[in-house]
Specification:
The protein is mostly beta strands. The chain is 12% helix and 54% strand. Strands 2, 3, 4, 6, 7, 8, 9, 11 and 12 form a nine-stranded mixed sheet that branches. The protein has a four-stranded mixed sheet with strand order 5-1-10-13, with no helix packed on it. The protein starts with 6 loop residues before the first helix and ends with a strand.
C-alpha cells in the first residue's frame, strides 16, 4: 500500500514541528526573563523620605541643598537640588521625598544632609533660624544600610522639631540644633489610637526609658493619632492635652511591618 505522505513531505513536516517547538521554547524563556531581575543588574534605588515630630510653631521651613550616601569611604551624591519643606506638614505618617537615585549595590555606612536655610513662623511673624556650622557642612546619619540589585531601599529621616529649635534669650531670636534619626522603612512599625475627648489639642508620645522616641498630633477631626516609623521594641505611650489631662500605658509592643492598635483612649 502506498504511504499517504512521502518521505520528503514527512521530513518537511518534522522540520516544521521542530522549528515551531524551538520558537515556543525561546519565547517562553524570554517571558521568564522579563519577570525577573536582569542577571547583569548591579544597581538598586535609594529613596530618602522626610517626616517630622510636631512642634508648637506655625511653620518650620528647612532648606536642604545636598544629599549624599557614603560608600566605601566615598560620598556619592544623591541630590543637589535645593528643596524647602514646612516640617509641620509632615507628621503622623506623612512623608515628602528628599531624594531618589540609582546606586551601585553594596553596603553604605551613612547618609549626609546639608542644610543651608531655615526659618520659623510664629503668630504670622517670620524669624530666621541660625544654622550651625555642622548642619551647613553636613549632618551625618546612621545606621548603615544595604542597596540590593533591582530593589528599592526606603529610608525615613525623622526631624524632631520640638527638640531642634531653641529660643535665644528674650529677643525672639531662634537657633537650629537639628535632632534627626534615620529609620529603614521596611524595619519599622507603628502605634495607633483614638482619643475620645480630643478638643484641647492633645499630643501623643512614644517613650523608651527617659527618651521620647516619637510624637504625633492627635487629629482635630476625629481624635486619631499615629506614631509611625517606630523601631521594634516596647514603649510607653502617653497622651497629654493643653488642659493638663493625660493618659499613659506601658509596655506597648511594636512589631516590624505591623500597626499596634490601642483602641479608644480617654484623657483624665
Amino acid at each position: 500500500m502506498k504511504p499517504l505522505i512521502g518521505g520528503k513531505e514527512m521530513r518537511l513536516i518534522t522540520l516544521f514541528l521542530i522549528g515551531t517547538l524551538s520558537l515556543a521554547f525561546v519565547l517562553g524563556c524570554g517571558d521568564d526573563n522579563d519577570k525577573s531581575t536582569s542577571p547583569g543588574e548591579t544597581t538598586g534605588t535609594l529613596k530618602l523620605l522626610l517626616t517630622d515630630s510636631p512642634g508648637i510653631f506655625q511653620e518650620v521651613n528647612i532648606t536642604f541643598s545636598e544629599i549624599s550616601a557614603n560608600y566605601e569611604n566615598e560620598w556619592i551624591t544623591v541630590s543637589t537640588t535645593p528643596q524647602t519643606f514646612d516640617l509641620l506638614k509632615l507628621s503622623s505618617g506623612i512623608t515628602a521625598l528628599l531624594g531618589e537615585k540609582k546606586l551601585e549595590a553594596g553596603h553604605y555606612s551613612q547618609i549626609r544632609l546639608i542644610i543651608t536655610g531655615a526659618e520659623v513662623i510664629i503668630s504670622d511673624n517670620s524669624y530666621p533660624l541660625a544654622v550651625p556650622s555642622g548642619a551647613s557642612s553636613g549632618l551625618k546619619l546612621g545606621p548603615a544600610f544595604d542597596i540590593e540589585p533591582g530593589i528599592d531601599t526606603e529610608l525615613v529621616v525623622d526631624f524632631d522639631v520640638a527638640r531642634s529649635i531653641h529660643e535665644k534669650g528674650k529677643k525672639q531670636e531662634y537657633t537650629l540644633n537639628p535632632r534627626l534619626r534615620l529609620i529603614p522603612k521596611a524595619q519599622s512599625g507603628a502605634i495607633k489610637g483614638r482619643v475620645t475627648n480630643y478638643q484641647a489639642s492633645p499630643v501623643a508620645y512614644a517613650i523608651a526609658g527617659s527618651d521620647t522616641v516619637n510624637s504625633a498630633f492627635v487629629s482635630e477631626t476625629n481624635g486619631d493619632f499615629l506614631l509611625s516609623f517606630m523601631p521594634a521594641g516596647s514603649f510607653t505611650v502617653a497622651v497629654a492635652d493643653t488642659l493638663g489631662n493625660g493618659f499613659s500605658t506601658p509596655d506597648v509592643a511594636v512589631t516590624i511591618g505591623k500597626t499596634t492598635e490601642l483602641g479608644e483612649i480617654t484623657l483624665k
